Every structure is written in C-alpha cells, then in structure tokens.
Amino acid sequence: MDESSKTNQINKLNDKNQIVSPNSEVIERALVKDWDKEIQKGEDMEKYWALEAEQFDWFKKWDEVLDESNKPFYKWFVGGKINLAHNAVDRWIDTNKRNKVAILYANELGEEVKITYYELYREVNKMANALKKLGVKKGDSVSLYLPMCPQLVVSMLACTKIGAIHSAVYSGLSSVAIVERITDINSKVVITADGTFRRGKVINLKPVIDEAVLECPSVETVIVINHTGSYDDGANLNENEVLYNEIIEDESDICPAEMTDAEDPLFILYTSGSTGKPKGVLHTTGGYMVGIATTLRKVFDIQEDDLWWSTADAGWITGHSYTIYAPLLLGSTTLIYEGAPDFPDAGIWWKVIERYGVSKFYTAPTAIRHLMRYGDEYPNSYNLNSLKVLGSVGEPINFEAWKWFYEEIGNSKAPIMDTWWQTETGMHMISPIPVADLKPCSATKPLPGVHVAIVDEEGIEVETGKKGYLAITNPWPAMFRTLYNDEERYKEVYWNFFSNLLYKTGDMARIDEEGYVWIEGRSDDVLKISGHRMGAVEVERAFNSHPAVNETAVIGKEDEVKGQVIKAFLILNEGHELDMSYGEGDVTLKDALKMHVRHDLGPIAVLGEIVSVDSLPKTKSGKIMRRILKAQEDGEDLGDTSTLDDL
Ligand code: PRX
Description:
Blueprint: H1 3-6, H2 24-29, H3 35-41, H4 45-53, E1 64-67, E2 75-78, H5 84-88, E3 101-107, E4 112-116, H6 117-133, E5 141-145, H7 150-162, E6 165-168, H8 175-185, E7 189-193, E8 195-198, E9 201-204, H9 206-213, E10 221-225, E11 241-243, H10 244-249, E12 265-271, E13 279-284, H11 286-299, E14 307-310, H12 317-329, E15 333-338, H13 348-356, E16 360-363, H14 365-372, H15 377-380, E17 389-393, H16 399-409, E18 416-419, E19 452-455, E20 468-472, E21 482-483, H17 487-495, E22 503-511, E23 517-522, E24 526-529, E25 532-535, H18 536-544, E26 549-559, E27 563-572, H19 589-601, E28 607-612, E29 618-619, H20 626-633, E30 644-646
Parallel strand pairs: 3-15, 5-6, 5-7, 6-12, 7-10, 10-11, 14-15, 14-16, 16-17, 17-18, 27-28
Antiparallel strand pairs: 1-2, 3-4, 8-9, 12-13, 13-21, 19-20, 20-22, 22-23, 24-25, 26-27, 29-30
Helix pairs in contact: 6-7, 8-9, 11-12, 14-16, 18-19
C-alpha cells in the first residue's frame, strides 16, 4: 500500500477487498502507534505479559511468570498475591479518579444512575461484609441471576473482594438451566432481582429463581434486589430470602480485600460444548486481570476521557471481561444499559451514544444486522461524532454489516475492531488495534503475546491460505484453567485433540499471505444463534424430553439477522404429527414443542424450522451425522458418507 493512501479517510466502501487504513486523527490519538512493533514486543511472551502485570497493585509480586511443569494445567504469576476488587476499585480512591464516574447505568425508561469510584468502593464493601455475615467464605461459590443493573456489578466485585467465586447465569435462561448450574457448584447464596425492564414491560425473574431453588438443596439464602419496585410497599419474602438493601444498610463501608493468590479461582461461567452438559469454564485471578486490562487498553485505545460502552450482558464472558472488569481495572467509565436495542424504537442505542457522548462502542454483528434493517434514518438523526473506535464480537461479521457499521455508525472514521475470542480464552486473542490496516471481515492478526496456527487433524501447520483448524500454540494469561469438576473433559476436549498439546478452539480458519486470519465457522456441533453459543446436543435433549418425540437432530440454519437459527429434524412417536392439535385450544404439536424447548433453554433458543422425518442419517455406531443434514440443507456435496448407515 502506498503511504499517501494510508491516512486518507475512506468515505464509501464498495469493495470487500478494500483495505481500510486509519485516518490521521486515530493515529494521532493512539497510545500504541506501531502495530507491527507491538506484535514484535509480544514475541518474548513472558517478558511482554510480566511488563503488563506491573500496572497492577500486587500485595506480593510473583516468583515466576509462567509455570508449564504440569501441562495443560498452566499457572501464571505463580506466588503472586493480588485482589481484583482492590485493583478495580480501591486503588482509585486515593487518586484523582476518586470522584470519577465508574458506572453509568441507563435504561429504557430513560432513567440513569451515576456511581463514582468512591461510591462504588463503599457499596462493594458493604455488600462484601453482608456476604461474610451470611457465611460466605473464600472459595465458596455465589450464583447470580440478575439483569444489567448497578447492584450486579457491586455483587460481582463484593464476591471477588472476599475471594468468593461467582457464577453468573444469564437472566434469559430458564430455571432448568439455573438448577443445573447451581447444583454443579453447590452455591449457598443466590443473588437475584425481582425483575428486569424489557420492551416496556417488567419481566419477572424472581418466580424463575423460586422454581429453581426448590430443586437446589445447597441454597441457604436468596438475596433479592428490589429493582423494578415489587417490594416498594414492604417485602413479602420467603423464609430463606433477604432484601439487598436491608442486608447492606447497617454494614460497615470498610472491608479489607482478601489476599487472593494469583491462581485462586475468580469465577465460573457455563458455556455450551458439543455434548449436552454445559461446561463450567473456570477463570482465575492474576493472569485474567492482566489479560483483559491489557487487551481492552490496546484494542480500544482506552484513555482518561473515554466513555466506554459494551452492550454485552454480564451473563456472558464479554460482559464479565469487557462490560465490567476491564474498564474498571483501567479506571475508566463503563456504561451499562438495560433494555432492548429497538425499544422504544430502533434509534435508542444511537440516542444513548449521543446523549452521553460514548467514544468507544462494542457490540455484536447480530445486533448490527437487526438495527440495519430499520434503515439509515435512525442513526442519521443522531450526532454520533463522539465515536472514535467501534468493536464487534461473538460471531463472524458479514461485509454488509461491517460496511453499515463503519459508514453509518462510525461515519467512515471510527475503525472497527473485529475481536475473535471465546469464553475459554477470557480475553481478546485475534484482533486489530486502532492503527491497524483493516481488511473488512477479518479479525486481522493475533494480538501481541498471542500465538496461533492453522493446522490439520494431526496438529501440523497447513500451507498459507489453506483452511484448517484454528489452534492456539502458546499459553496466555487469561486462559481458563480447567472445566469445573471435570479435568478429564478439559484435557480431552481442548488439549488432546491434536497430538502436540495445542489448544483446540473449535473454529475453522485460514491465514492469508499477509498474516490476516479469516474465521470460517465452527468445526464442531456448536451453534451460534444471535451470537449465543448453544450445543446441538443440548437442543436435541430438550426436544427429546417431550413425550411426542422419539429422536431429534438439529443443525444451524443460516439466517440473515441472527447468523444462525435452529432447524430441527424430528422422528415423532407413533400417532403424532406436527400439525395435529395438542393439548388445549388451537395449539398444534409444533407450537407445543416450541414452548417446551423455550421453557428448557430460554428464549435464546430461536427455532427457525421444525420438520418431521422418518429417519436420521447415522454412522454405523449410531451417532447422528449432523454434517450430512447440514450439507443437504445448504445444497452442498455430502462429503465422505462411507460411515453412513442409512440416508
Ligand atoms: O466461533 C467463534 C465465535 O464465538 C465462539 C466463542 O463463543 P463464546 O465462548 O460464546 O464467546 C463469544 C464472545 C467472546 C468462537 O469460537 N466468535 C467469537 N468472536 C468472533 C467469532 N467468530 C468470528 N469472528 C469473531 N470476531
């Protein structure tokens, strides 16, 4: 590329292959000005991460940066003592950030709450003391089932302050999913809210928890946040329930931070894999903090005057790492928003950006595609000039969405950081930084200190440009340390697939001549529905638990807005048809099945199509071959069918 075009702003993007270079404003402002040099710095990985770790307040410095003696159970910053809440909150109160807004909460009712670092500090301490009083100790787990509200942030930080392990369950998941997650870790305490605001209504969360807790004998106390006002006129609580406001009211606003070890567990987050059982991804303290804070600062060029908005809910890893923890670890202001992206109309996000002057905005392709359908008038009626850097996460972004995001939201001047990473990686792994030359729809290159390769089934690197398995070749600080209660599965699923101990991501990808990575979708039976990860087996299990269903196979069907939706192939039991009426009223069996699956998996299970079939393609050993159904659906060659029993 010639140098003269480098700083020219591109106004219209017509060609997918066009390189989008940063404009002079982006370069001038950037903390890191030379992408290649920064990547080179990461070549001495341990030195690079150790230098980044220096930014924190350690109670005791580490003895060793990386311990590889028991692969794949890696340890980072061995011997170090550090507390996340202390670094995210306490350490700012003796600086000029004391009265800076830490959390800016806004919701669809137009309400807002601003919480400064000092206020956050006091509230976290009160909650931490209240948890201690309820018997929560270092190493105990606390389950959270909460909407995006300030008390959610307080609850997470209060757990980390005392060394308790939190497990947040997305507030759209069903009681079935909650029971599974609470019983796996035996939480004594659950924190929830009465409800959440969504599209002009209050969605009640408490009844979902009530139903779940009946089946969770470990739960001794449920802390309830009076968020939507159900308890304004006095509380009508069950025996084991307490109100958040009441338990923190008389607590001291001083609470010393637990001296947690760098390798002490921080949180567990459940995610889907290719088997039915959700995986409890365990993250620990020191390395995680170093990984997320470094990547947020560099990828989004976070500086003192920024207003950061990540739209991800705290029920997912993006919410943990980048909506909540990393911005606070950088002493930044993070906006948390409660409500739908298209209510009261499809301009609400743009209105929020204009109202507060958001400078860095991070969201998912599915949301961009959804809002794009409403046309340009919405973004065009707001002043979005404050936006300096944009970000995308969760699934591949298609060119039309990239172009719209870049031109209509970023005004052809804010570069898009297409960040590739996973619940397991904890932090961004493949992503540009603002001064990078972008190739639309490529996540560009591994970040400094991260090393990846495209390999075949043996773990041998394929030729440049060839598609293969995306593997990570070196450990990284924010990596998960194991699957909770399932070390065997941790080794089996992620590390033993290739013979040479590479980390298997489950994604296919290729790397072009210039080292840019192009993600080509999953290699396993994991679906991405509106960016949410869901195992095919999980959905099949939900269908199979209905009395009318004999057997099910599901695949992801391409969808313009949601990326993928579920297509289910069902073998129904004798005497059943999808169109027959079932139960009361006008309900057909198909409707009943939809309700049944949504009850089990929550509304994130978006069912695109349900069809009834006589048989399913299986291997001779009886495993369903979803890839055959998928190839048939996409009108592709069926590939190797030699192990197929019956088509
Ligand atoms: O398939 C990749 C896709 O999301 C998977 C990880 O999902 P989850 O653990 O739910 O984490 C999502 C948020 C970090 C990956 O294996 N994925 C994530 N980011 C991208 C992506 N696919 C393409 N491009 C991305 N930027």
